[in-house]
């Protein structure tokens, strides 16, 4: 093909991921024909992860689907997306020799921007990249609003872009529907999905969008009918299983929720899918299924950067709960050396080891492990470590300390239903069910009382005392989403009445950034981002 030396393609920074050196060189040659000179290469998933984590902002990633027995290209893409390692503008092209990959891509929760069948040519690559760049440029006004966390503005831009670039109507409607759900504008979202289904009545994503609308509206029975209809049409569609699990869980059917997640894991047997199954199985007390799931996770991620310390720790805890202390200690001893850099890991590892030593009758080793766990937990609290330490405290007979730790864990995020369920499970496993009302429900009431008192002070024209109350609470529970929400909201209310306070602007930004990390995509947080942004802009105009 004829090289266009100063085309927009030639400036792209690219990464090639393929386990075959000859294929990497072949793809690099094709990219070179397009004028692309900034090209890095990775022969394994770990090399690819290091390249992405190394700070290079790649515009284009070309990845082979078949990488190795443990991790394929689809699972690597899933890891990149779930860990938020790729910016939205990175184009991810999957390369495969398998004509059936389209079934995998259509079923997957995380889809590549494009996939291409081998053999590749420079002209085919150019055509695909040009199309992706056209799409990226057309949707730029929408994405610019999203960068600023302005969902409402992005919805407006969806309509504007649709007028000038109707060829991207499917992508625009998908984006607009999701944004409207985030903004809780459910009837508008339904209209968007209805518009899509009028175009084509077999659009699975639009039917799933309708189901999501029903879930947000609390219409679980209607949502379930829609999801089951989707699965009858396409039994491989992963997002439908996730929604089914969400519906069942909301209705208190934890076993049915687990069954839905287990079926999705059979379709795409990735580490993340197995992890979801393992966590759900552990919460409902199905230790055999939890063990099987986390065994799969460790197998998928063995020796890889995709491995997560929590997987090994949870499996070790499962061994303890099934009475296999020796297996738990052996697993803990097999932990990679790099895990020792984490205080959370050391604390949880020692807490689980303490429980194992108690089971083996070695109380001296149990006490030593418990002290190590407690020392490592100081200054770096985590929900997992705190709950494991509480279980260890009860195991070594320190009931008062165990009770304090349960209360501390719940107060760290009293609106987290999963955390509350795990706290109750610790008490049940340790034979302390009678403490549940006092420790779990009592801690929840205490947190709610702090928020209620702060609101009352604000209504009583004591705003400074109100804000001070919440700031004090956040010192002891800095990641409590309920308290963070209240603190952000009341600080914004104060500024709406008294004007911009730069110290409070910094505080609210800190609260909202923490909430973005803890509960990404939350609509209330998005609205507060917009409120703060508008208030600051208005104050700047006046000055």
TrEMBL record:
<dbReference type="Pfam" id="PF13432">
    <property type="entry name" value="TPR_16"/>
</dbReference>
<feature type="modified residue" description="4-aspartylphosphate">
    <location>
        <position position="64"/>
    </location>
</feature>
<feature type="domain" description="Response regulatory">
    <location>
        <begin position="13"/>
        <end position="133"/>
    </location>
</feature>
<dbReference type="InterPro" id="IPR011006">
    <property type="entry name" value="CheY-like_superfamily"/>
</dbReference>
<dbReference type="InterPro" id="IPR011990">
    <property type="entry name" value="TPR-like_helical_dom_sf"/>
</dbReference>
<dbReference type="Pfam" id="PF00072">
    <property type="entry name" value="Response_reg"/>
</dbReference>
<protein>
    <submittedName>
        <fullName>Response regulator receiver protein</fullName>
    </submittedName>
</protein>
<dbReference type="InterPro" id="IPR019734">
    <property type="entry name" value="TPR_rpt"/>
</dbReference>
<dbReference type="InterPro" id="IPR052048">
    <property type="entry name" value="ST_Response_Regulator"/>
</dbReference>
<dbReference type="Pfam" id="PF14559">
    <property type="entry name" value="TPR_19"/>
</dbReference>
<dbReference type="InterPro" id="IPR001789">
    <property type="entry name" value="Sig_transdc_resp-reg_receiver"/>
</dbReference>
<keyword id="KW-0597">Phosphoprotein</keyword>
